[in-house]
Amino acid sequence: MQDIRIERTTQPRQKPDMATVRFGRSFSDHMFLMNYDSKNGWHDARIVPYGPIPMEMASMVFHYAQEIFEGLKAYRTAAGKIQLFRPEENIRRMAQSADRMGMPAVDEDMFLEALKTLIRVDESWVPEMKETSLYIRPFMIATDVALGVHASDSYLFCIITCPVGSYYPEGINPVKILIESEDVRAVRGGTGYAKCGGNYGASIRAGVKATRQGFSQVLWLDGVERKYIEEVGAMNIMFKIEGKIHTPALNGSVLPGVTRKSSIELLRAWGYEVVERQISVEEILEAARDGKLEEVWGTGTAAVITPVGSMTYKDETLVIGGGKIGEVTRRLYDGLTGIQWGTVEDLFHWTVPVSK
Amino acid sequence: MQDIRIERTTQPRQKPDMATVRFGRSFSDHMFLMNYDSKNGWHDARIVPYGPIPMEMASMVFHYAQEIFEGLKAYRTAAGKIQLFRPEENIRRMAQSADRMGMPAVDEDMFLEALKTLIRVDESWVPEMKETSLYIRPFMIATDVALGVHASDSYLFCIITCPVGSYYPEGINPVKILIESEDVRAVRGGTGYAKCGGNYGASIRAGVKATRQGFSQVLWLDGVERKYIEEVGAMNIMFKIEGKIHTPALNGSVLPGVTRKSSIELLRAWGYEVVERQISVEEILEAARDGKLEEVWGTGTAAVITPVGSMTYKDETLVIGGGKIGEVTRRLYDGLTGIQWGTVEDLFHWTVPVSK
Ligand SMILES: Cc1ncc(COP(=O)(O)O)c(C=O)c1O
Ligand SMILES: Cc1ncc(COP(=O)(O)O)c(C=O)c1O
Question: What are the coiled-coil residue ranges (chains A, B) (predicted)?
């Protein structure tokens, strides 16, 4: 494995006030960089001060969006230790994204070492306040300076981090979701299961429309029939119907969320039945009308477990659980965050210590 | 309209040898830049030396591919004059792309003025050799320094140019096309009609696979049924069957090509019947087997009119027109390029002079 060269900043950045910090706006002192080209493979692994990099305007990433990313967090436990949550899942997913986008994967051990080393260097940036963490954004961009659509020969892999509070400025209150019936985010055979920029770019217009109408996020339907529920903007979604939990299956157009997977494992360990299957929007509307839809929540690294208070489809709005947080939603939130912040025993061995 | 500030280079770049130049690898001396933010709108229009720009790694474009582009060309006529080909079509399409991606449009007059001014400044970069032109790449990227998926508040609009020869190193020989049956590029409700980076990123893996197998480009099928023909990597496609010309209709997932539109107009003016409709791959295979498929060609700014010599679908390869250039393909190529290089009268008023 390559050594990681470390160049420490001489001008430490101002740390944000964690009570008011906005998600993804304040970056830590350092970033990890590593270059790839087909001749040399991955090389020049280094940690340098966070700051701008000169980019030629003909760089492929600006034109053809050959770009992928990940999102995970480092947590500071009550004992002051720092830990990651299932980083190997993000590392593996990034390799899958790379494959879909014709990009090279990063060696798994190197990736984990890069994460740990960067967080150790920026240890003081892992916040202590309740509900806060260090959001970690690994990403890879195509850097060939060339027009003409092709697989880039050169790439930059980068990890930046930022201390974050709760994803929703309002805290863990139930959110209002708009079921999008026109724009489509992903389709079978497309890039839905990959964490590539294009999926998110395609989703922005619908997000803006939803926000203007007072919704927090958009729920996407499948691209083929526009009938089956896929996922929310930055979360997978789960429904509790008559005591059982239902969630859309990983069909190739849904992102395989780490929080989704962990939630399913936790729920099953607690004795809940969890079904992964195709779920039509009609079925959910029906269950809600009949009073059988007991809870709805989203799962995601940034958003953790987010209760869904209402869902709007075309002209119909369904209020779920009287707009209050449901029992399983709350239990999942406490269970997961408990493991993440080290207040609940990590029976699944999900956490990975960062400190040496 | 804003004034364009011009800062000329003091270190002119080396011009490439036009006999061997690769597409999109040599850039002219200058580029046009203009910034947007929601408070000031578009501002600071300027032409500066081509060169790298410092970019923060948290810039939105690297993560969520909120990025769109265009492609058009400037041609030098035998009389030495420089002209653009239907730039208003590209300007309008870029506004449509911007709308789909939740981005601000560039004022049409400003856009045209930027194109003309930049090409005047880099006049010496418009090549003279036969079959060469100056490829122009306007594009817009999201520049907010913020994670969290949202519509960026700030954007950079940029125009870079490069002298190019023929798109295909082999010249105007019939190309081999692979009909892609697994990966999907675009779907109804998605971003297919927009010229956004994500569409191209999604297409790269299939392109690599096709190239490895000796094909020149991939032909995409629709995302819903994977049955109907949409377009080629960087071209729209046309079929001549028993004297009539057929091309996929603009259904929302196909890029509305300027060369496609111009070809249809030319063909109709010449008395050909052109039908825009849904075309299944089965129908084309059938026509080919029955000897009714007379010609196939692609249309695109970079690739102009490209004869398709063979199409491969799963295990079947169809050779078209004995692998030679068809009569209509040749006539279209000559007709279009004749107008573009000023050797044929521009009856449609498609060209726009750049020289004052
Ligand atoms: C589209 C989408 N779905 C689901 C998720 C949830 O995935 P994870 O739990 O791995 O964060 C995310 C975000 O991370 C996402 O962007
Ligand atoms: C996907 C795609 N289809 C079609 C075209 C042809 O469009 P135009 O004739 O405007 O260049 C292009 C390229 O320009 C393209 O990228």
Answer: none
